[in-house]
């Protein structure tokens, strides 16, 4: 398996060095499956300052549709011919239709009664109930609409990550149409199987274990690693080899999934980062596609709170980061030992 990267050198006359010639180095890394490229810049890494969110949280509380005193009154119910329940519930988690759908079957799972939960305060119970609530809906859709093979559970945590409501909630999708992520991955998986005669996901985990540079943990039902060519500032990948669909995420698999997600949340919080995107991907009926989760924090760049997504990400589909995956792996590993 290839982990290709190209080292780049730029030269210019630096005014901070009396206009002497200065060199700067960067890398272009290529994902071992799809070949998508990520640029790792030689840029000073500054400590992220934690922002006071009190004003945002209190203002959002006044218009929140997901708080327990109003959620039953203002959220939709599922049509009886599409789902077996009007709403799905597990513990405090509540799954309802998305009032602003972007596909055939999209839903929202309100994760807890509490309006705001800091990353460090999510509990195993909150995460487990939220995932189980999502999976119950997805399993129901799979039984009633077997053509909805592209299923995912997604999280925009806080406005910087695209969350339009502060109250913690997950976005669930079950579609007959793939996103670009699947469109890039599925042909690449088929090519890999044809060329190598083996499974990409198994090979990747074994190769990462042998290299030891980006593997975080691989002693449970999931393997956790830092992506070689991250999709964001950094990119934590959890591979679930013994699952094919949401119905398989039970018992020890669910426990390990939730524990790993909570570890990542604690690590992101330790860096003073307060937003993230998460996607848990399924492709039902595909022997080549292994369910997996990706988690990327979101940050803004001081001093003007500039978006981390610029023309390279928006119009060239090119991820950019200043953090090396190998350094992130060193930093996050201790969170699996706590």
Overview of the structural elements:
The chain has 338 residues and is an alpha+beta fold. It has a single domain (64-305, 323-338), classed as HIT-like (HIT family, subunit A, 2-Layer Sandwich), CATH 3.30.428.10. It is 28% helix and 26% strand. Helix 3 crosses helix 6. The chain starts with a strand and ends in a 6-residue tail after the last helix.
What is the strand and helix layout of this fold?
Blueprint: E1 5-14, E2 20-30, E3 37-40, H1 54-61, H2 71-74, E4 88-90, E5 93-97, E6 105-110, H3 124-144, E7 150-157, E8 169-175, H4 180-196, H5 200-211, E9 215-217, E10 223-226, E11 236-239, H6 251-270, E12 275-283, E13 292-298, E14 300-301, E15 306-307, H7 311-315, E16 319-321, H8 325-332
Parallel strand pairs: 3-16
Antiparallel strand pairs: 1-2, 2-3, 4-5, 5-6, 6-8, 7-8, 7-12, 9-10, 10-11, 11-13, 12-13, 14-15
Proportion of residues in helical segments:
25-40%
Unreliable spans: none
State which percent range the strand residues make up.
25-35%
CATH topology (fold) name:
HIT family, subunit A
CATH class category label: Alpha Beta
The H/E string reads EEEHHEEEHEEHHEEEHEEEEHEH
Q: Rg, please?
A: 21 Å
Number of helices: 8
Q: Please indicate the count of domains.
A: 1
CATH architecture: 2-Layer Sandwich
CATH superfamily: HIT-like
* Secondary structure: number of strands: 16
Biggest sheet features? 10 strands, antiparallel
Q: N-to-C terminal Cα separation, in Å?
A: 32 Å
Main β-sheet, spatial strand arrangement: 4-5-6-8-7-12-13-11-10-9
Shape: globular
- Average pLDDT, rounded to a whole number, is 95
């Amino acid at each position: 398996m290839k982990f290709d990267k190209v080292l780049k050198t730029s030269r210019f006359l630096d005014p901070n060095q009396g206009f002497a010639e200065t060199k700067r180095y960067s890398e272009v890394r290529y994902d071992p499956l799809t070949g998508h490229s990520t640029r790792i810049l030689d840029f000073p890494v500054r400590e992220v300052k934690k922002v006071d969110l009190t004003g945002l949280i209190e203002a959002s509380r006044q218009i929140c549709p997901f708080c327990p005193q109003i959620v039953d009154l203002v959220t939709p119910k599922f049509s009886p011919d599409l789902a077996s329940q009007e709403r799905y519930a597990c513990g405090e988690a509540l799954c309802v239709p998305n009032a602003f759908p972007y596909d055939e079957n999209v839903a929202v799972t309100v994760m807890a009664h509490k309006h705001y939960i800091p990353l460090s305060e999510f509990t195993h119970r909150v995460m487990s109930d939220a995932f189980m609530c999502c999976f119950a809906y997805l399993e129901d859709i799979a039984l009633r609409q077997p053509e909805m093979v592209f299923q995912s559970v997604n999280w925009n945590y806080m406005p910087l990550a695209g969350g339009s409501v502060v109250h913690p909630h997950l976005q669930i999708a079950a579609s007959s149409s793939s996103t670009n992520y699947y469109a890039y991955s599925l042909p690449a998986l088929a090519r890999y199987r044809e060329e190598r005669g083996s499974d990409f996901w198994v090979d990747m985990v074994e190769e990462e274990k042998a290299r030891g540079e980006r593997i975080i943990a691989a002693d449970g039902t999931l393997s956790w690693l830092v992506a070689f060519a991250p999709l964001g500032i950094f990119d934590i990948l959890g591979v679930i080899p013994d699952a094919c669909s949401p119905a398989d995420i039970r018992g020890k698999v669910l426990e390990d999934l939730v524990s790993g997600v909570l570890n990542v949340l604690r690590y992101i919080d330790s860096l003073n980062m307060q937003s993230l995107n998460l996607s848990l991907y399924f492709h039902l009926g595909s022997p080549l596609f292994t369910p997996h989760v990706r988690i990327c924090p979101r940050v803004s760049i001081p001093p003007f709170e500039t978006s981390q997504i610029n023309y390279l990400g928006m119009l060239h589909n090119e991820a950019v980061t200043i953090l090396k995956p190998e350094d992130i792996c060193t930093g996050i590993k201790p969170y699996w030992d706590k």
